[in-house]
Amino acid sequence: MTTDTKTSKPLARTRASAAAGASKRAKPKAAKAKEAISRKRGHVRIEDVAKVAGVGAMTVSRALNQPHTVSAEKRKLVADAIRKTGYVPNLVAGSLASSRSKIIAVINPAMRTSIFSDMTQGMWDVLEKEDYQLLLGSTDYSQRREDKLIRTFISRRVDGLVLTGASHSKSSRRQLENNNITVIETFDLPADPIDMVVGFSAFEAAAEMARLAGAWGYKNPGIITAPKTTDNRTQRRIDGFISGLKDVKLRLKKKSVCEAQALTMKAGGAALEQLLAADPTIDIVLCTNDILAVGALLACQRNGWSSPERVAVTGFGDIEIADQLSPSLTTVRVRGYEMGQRIGELMLARLQGDVAQAHICDMGFEIIRRQSA
Fold first, then answer.
1. What is the pLDDT of residue 2?
2. Contact 206, 316 (CB under 8 A)
3. Cα separations (Å) of 8 from 11, 25, 234?
4. Taking CA 24 as the corner, what is the angle to CA 23 and CA 30, rounded to the nearest 5 degrees?
5. Residue 357, pLDDT score
6. What are the pLDDT digits (tens) for 335-371?
7. Whole-angstrom Cα distance, residue 321 to residue 129?
8. Counting Cβ atoms within 10 Å, is residue 148 exposed (0-12), middle (13-18) or buried (19+)?
9. Are 34 and 45 spatial neighbours (Cβ–Cβ below 8 Å)?
10. What is the pLDDT of residue 247?
11. What stretches in the chain show pLDDT beneath 70?
12. Which pLDDT value is given to residue 167?
C-alpha cells in the first residue's frame, strides 16, 4: 500500500505535465509567434509580422507596398498583425531599394515668421496626399548655416530641396547642381536659377509701393531696412524703393535711410524714432519688412504721433497681425500659402517624371492699402 501510494503521486504529476504540454502545443502558431516577439528586445521585423499573420514575408511586403497584388483576406491578416506587433516599416531600407526617400527638405530663414509658415503649410497640404514628408531647417539668415543644412540634407538623400531666396554660396550651388536633386528656390525671381523657381520680384514689389507713396501725395520719404546681413532680398527691396521713388520724382536724403539693429519690432520702433529725430519732415516711412513696420507703428503710439497724419508707415509681407493693428498696416501682400501649394505641385510633377513644367513661376504680389498710409 505504501509503495502504491508513493508511486501514484509521480504518475499524477506526469499526467498533469503531459496535459500542460499538450495545452501548450495546442496554441496557434500566430499566438506563439506573438509571445516570442513580446519576449524579444529590439525592432519588430517584417518576418515577425509574417509569423503573426501566418503568411510569408514577401506577402507582408507586397501588402504594404503593392496592396492591389494581395487578396483582401491576406491584407486584413497583415493589418491585424501590424497592429498587434507595433511594426513600423523601415523607410531607409525602402528608400535604398526605390531610390526615393519620400522626404522634401525646406530651408527657411526663420521659423517664427508667419509668411514662411504659410508657405510650408501650403507645401504640406499638397505633398502629404502623396505620402511625402517635410524636413525643416532654419538658417536664421546665416549663409554658413544654410551651407551646413544643404550638405546635411543632401547626405540624407532627400528627394527635393526648397530654398528661400536665391543667394547661395558657390560651394552649395555646386553641390546642388552635381547631386541630381530637385531644387526649387522661392521668395525671389533669380535670373540664373539652380533648377526651378516659385516666387515674385521683391524689387518690383518695393518699387510699386514707392511709386504709390508718391501717388498718394507724400513728399518726404524715409526707409527702414532690416539688417543687411540678413540676405540679399533686403537689398533688392531697398533698390526697388529707391527706383520707385525716382520714378515719381521723389528725392531720398541720405539721412532718411535707417538700418534697424535687428529684425524685431523693438528695433523697428527705435529706427523710426532715429529717423524722425534726424529729419522731422519725413512724412512716410517704407519698411522692408512687416515686423519692422509693426514696431514703427507701436513707436508712434508710444510717442503720441498719429499715423498716417504725422507719419505714414508701410510694410512688406502682410503678416497675420497687419490688419489687426490700429491703424491697420498698409503693406505688400505676398501669397505665401499659394506659393507653397505651387511648390508642392511642381515638386511632385518633377519627381513623377514630368520635366515639361515651367521652370520659373512668378506668383506676383499685391499692394494692400489700409489705414497707416
1. 39
2. yes
3. 5, 26, 96
4. 120
5. 66
6. 999 999 999 999 999 998 877 666 899 999 999 999 9
7. 30
8. middle
9. no
10. 97
11. 1-42, 90-100, 230, 356-358
12. 87
Q: Provide the sign of the torsion angle of the four alpha carbons 87, 92, 97, 101, taken in this order.
A: positive
Spatial separation of the C-alpha atoms in residues 349 and 322, rounded to whole Å = 35
Q: What is the pLDDT of residue 368?
A: 98
Sign for the pseudo-dihedral over CA of 247, 250, 256, 260: negative
Contact at 8 Å (CB) between 291 and 319?
A: yes
Kindly state the cell numbers that stand for 1: 500500500
The x, y and z cell numbers of residue 253, run together, are 536724403
DSSP 258-315: EE-SSSSHHHHHHHHHHHHHH-TT--EEEESSHHHHHHHHHHHHHHT--TTTT-EEE-
pLDDT value of position 32:
52
Q: Residue 28: how many CA atoms within 13 Å on its side-chain side?
A: 7
**Which residue in this structure is represented by grid cell 524703393?**
241
Per-residue pLDDT tens for 34-82? Answer: 545 444 445 788 899 999 999 999 999 888 878 889 999 999 999 999 8
Residue appearing with cell numbers 530641396: 161
What is the rounded CA–CA span in Å between residue 81 and residue 50?
8
Residue type, 187: F
CB 223 within 8 Å of CB 256? yes
**Can you give the pLDDT at residue 293?**
98
Compute CA distances 34 → 41, 63, 68, 226, 263, whole Å: 13, 20, 27, 61, 57
Cell of 164: 528661400
Separation CA 277–CA 281 (nearest Å): 10
Identity of the residue numbered 172 = S
Q: How far apart are CA 190 and CA 57, in angstroms?
A: 50
Taking the C-alpha atoms of residue 69 and residue 301, their distance in angstroms, rounded to an integer, is 68
Give the per-residue pLDDT at 195.
93
Predicted pLDDT at 124: 96
User: What is the end-to-end Cα distance of the chain in Å, rounded?
Assistant: 115
Query: Cα(118)–Cα(108) distance, rounded to whole angstroms?
Result: 12
347 burial class (0-12, 13-18, 19+ CB within 10 angstroms)? buried
Residues 6+ apart with CB under 8 A from 14: none
